[in-house]
Amino acid sequence: MDELIDERELSKLRWRCRRGLLENDLFIERFFSRYSSHLTHKQAQGLLALMDLSDNDLLDLFLARQQPQGDLLSDEVVDVLRQLREAR
Q1: Cα-Cα-Cα-Cα dihedral sign, residues 41, 46, 48, 49
Q2: Domain count along the chain
Q3: What residues are paired with 40 via a beta bridge?
Q4: Which of 54, 41, 62, 24 is nearest to 12 (CA)?
Q5: pTM for the structure as a whole
Q6: Is 77 exposed, middle or buried (0-12, 13-18, 19+ CB in 10 A)?
Q7: Which spans in 17-52 are helix H?
Q8: What's the CATH code of the domain at 26?
Q9: Is residue 1 part of a domain?
């Protein structure tokens, strides 16, 4: 089992996940509301990989208009993306 992130790492992750597009922020806030108390390092890695995307590309993934491709096609990203979509 993957180790949980601590409060400091969670705070940094929340800061890194702030977006310019309100719709993305809503997905992310719902995700944190649901999963922040048991967020693992692997989930954090998946979330950080998604945060490298532009706001529009990220929203397309959240809304399932697109699927992860290339470097984003990893277990961590796919799992976190599934959780983000469930949180709507």
Answers
A1: positive
A2: 1
A3: 4
A4: 41
A5: 0.90
A6: buried
A7: 22-35, 41-51
A8: 1.10.150.250
A9: no
